[in-house]
Design a protein that fits this description.
By secondary structure, the protein is an alpha+beta fold. The chain has 7 helices and 8 strands. The longest helix has 16 residues.
């Protein structure tokens, strides 16, 4: 029953500089812009976007997560302009195990400004308080040191490496597995 209530209304989260809201059709050009950037797409696991159809598929995936009660993907928007600058949220939500996997991406022009740290904190808080998660998982390409650092900065622990775990862009890549437990986060805040 709680799962049903959780997915009735899309939650809006706010920070000093950001509004995290439901992704919308108006975001499509900026989703395309973000995921057509080689730096942004480097560690995502698929080639850079070339067409609006690819952005539409991405938006469709964001929306399906919530509709199908498999997760929540927020559009990260700049509070001043209201423009889409990235996305962050949960996938692989498993209510029976009280866990989900977190993921994110951000427009290249917004990197190194503390935006993702600011966005990820209320999302983690939402996961532990409203979704009643006990565990939040993450995976990152071992070469993506910025992402690993971000996750560790907000309390995630490295749990191991999955060697040659995925085949992306013509090569096998290693993934670092990270996790954050509710009891660790409660002590971290």
């Amino acid at each position: 029953m709680e799962n049903q209530v959780l997915f009735e209304t899309f939650p809006i989260l706010e920070t000093d500089r950001l509004i995290l809201r439901q992704p919308e059709t108006i975001d499509l050009p900026l989703i395309l812009d973000m995921l057509s950037n080689e730096e942004v797409a480097r560690y995502i696991g698929f080639p850079t976007f070339q067409t609006m159809a690819e952005a539409e598929n991405e938006l469709g995936w964001y929306q399906a997560l919530f509709r199908e009660k498999q997760g929540i993907r927020w559009a990260i928007t700049d509070r001043q302009s209201g423009k889409f600058i990235g996305s962050c949220g949960f996938k692989n939500y498993q209510a029976v195990h009280n866990k989900a996997e977190i993921g994110y991406d951000l427009m290249y022009s917004w990197w190194n400004k503390g935006i993702m740290t600011e966005a990820i904190r209320p999302i983690i808080e939402y996961g532990f308080t409203h979704m009643k998660l006990n565990r939040i998982e993450a995976e990152a390409d071992t070469r993506n040191t910025a992402s690993i650092h971000l996750l560790q900065k907000v309390g995630f622990q490295v749990e191991g490496i999955s060697r040659e775990s995925e085949f992306e862009n013509g090569m096998y890549i290693d993934l670092v597995k990270l996790g954050l437990l509710r009891r660790e986060y409660a002590g971290y805040v």
